[in-house]
Amino acid sequence: MADLQPISAALEALLAGVSPLSAETVPLEAAAGRVLADAVTAQLDVPPFDNSAMDGYALRAADAGKRLPISQRIAAGSPAVPLIEGSCARIFTGGAIPPGANCVVMQERVEMDGERALIPEGIPVGDNVRLQGRDVKRGSILLNAGERLEAAALGHLAGQGITQVNVRRRPRVALLSTGDEIIDPGTPLKPGQLYNSNRPMLKRLLENFGAEVVQLVSVPDDYAQTVALLRQAAMEADVVVSTGGVSVGEEDHVKAALESLGQLDMWKLAIRPGKPLALGRLPRTDGSEARFVGLPGNPVSSFVGAWLFLRPVMGALLGCPALNALPTLTAIANFTTNTGPRQHYMRVALRFTDTGVIADAFEDQNSGVLSSCISADALAVIAPHQKVENGSLVRCLWLKGLG
């Protein structure tokens, strides 16, 4: 086990020299999930004018406690005129505060005396008023470069009247499935064959990480064809991902093909699951390189490897810091385990209780048990040569709700 490399060394090798991809301009309605290439400066105050936070009456605070005539009615979207001294304005949520008014009293607190409003005492200046620029000041940074455009960010941009944004090009990924025994769903299984569970799983994860999967290729157990398909994939993709074929079996040709074409940066990692994981580079005819990530064929190993390696390389290519590392939390172990020389990434479900976060490990942590990944909230990281008992504190990498 002396030749096994830690994950930190693998990530360093994988990300060395990786820089953000070029930018492109897309319509805002097509920008969901994309990553900003440049910071966006606010061109408008938000809100653009003082407005009412509720339905009620706008007045001068000094007139609280009086019977005031209603001099105007202000609905949202309607113009307001200066408030007549000694009067109030009937106003609705979002309506512009009329010049001269400095507070709003909610309608439930006001009684009507004929045509006059009985205003309660003690209404403070600014009460129920949303001031111009409270959310965003014109000239301030609205969103930073590297921000991923999810729902709130898209709304923030739309609030400025923005219709186009400058975003990073999506990383192009070629996804190769190796092995004669791996076949696509829909084909009758023959003895010794397995359906390809890795392909749809990894495609979805890659898309969640911001990538565009441009090739889905089945690679037979043949060295010459493996070389040809790797070479072809590198011509079109920024990152080439393969599953299977990176171990030491006679029919595992990916590692040898990679070494013949380009550069093997790392092989055999001190992690579980996922020890036979190859990282390297494939040359292109223009002198550039495609990154290569060879994941193990076992589905759990591919699942874990995608979170640990594919996500950060997509973050580097997109210039998106949020993708570089998974959020972590500390949980109380509701399981026992002993690790050997490899760092273990255990699938766990989390329970948030009054006494802390409880991590329940799935009983079967075998790398072929993909069902555990469906309900897993996190990966509990157990260092090499460590004993974990019930009640031990463990570091967990949070998976739910993340792309």
UniProtKB/TrEMBL annotation:
Protein role: Catalyzes the insertion of molybdate into adenylated molybdopterin with the concomitant release of AMP.
PANTHER family: GEPHYRIN, MOLYBDOPTERIN BIOSYNTHESIS PROTEIN
Keyword Metal-binding (UniProt): yes
UniProtKB keywords: Magnesium, Metal-binding, Molybdenum, Molybdenum cofactor biosynthesis, Transferase
Cofactor(s) demanded: Mg(2+)
Annotated NCBIfam families: Glp_gephyrin (NF045515), molyb_syn (TIGR00177)
GO molecular function: metal ion binding; molybdopterin molybdotransferase activity
EC identifiers of the protein: 2.10.1.1
GO cellular component, one term: cytosol
Gene3D superfamilies with a match to the protein in the record: MoaB/Mog-like domain, MoeA, C-terminal, domain IV, Molybdopterin biosynthesis moea protein, domain 2, Molybdopterin biosynthesis moea protein, domain 3
Domain of life of the native organism: Bacteria
Native organism: Vreelandella nigrificans
Catalytic activity: adenylyl-molybdopterin + molybdate = Mo-molybdopterin + AMP + H(+)
Protein name: Molybdopterin molybdenumtransferase
SUPFAM superfamilies: MoeA C-terminal domain-like, MoeA N-terminal region -like, Molybdenum cofactor biosynthesis proteins
Family: Belongs to the MoeA family.
InterPro entries associated with the record: MoaB/Mog-like_dom_sf (IPR036425), MoaB/Mog_dom (IPR001453), MoCF_biosynth_CS (IPR008284), MoeA-like (IPR038987), MoeA_C_domain_IV (IPR005111), MoeA_C_domain_IV_sf (IPR036688), MoeA_linker/N (IPR005110), MoeA_linker/N_sf (IPR036135)
UniProt record, GO biological process: Mo-molybdopterin cofactor biosynthetic process
Enzyme superclass (EC): transferase
Record-annotated MoaB/Mog domain positions: 174-316
Pathway membership: Cofactor biosynthesis; molybdopterin biosynthesis
Pfam families per UniProt: MoCF_biosynth (PF00994), MoeA_C (PF03454), MoeA_N (PF03453)
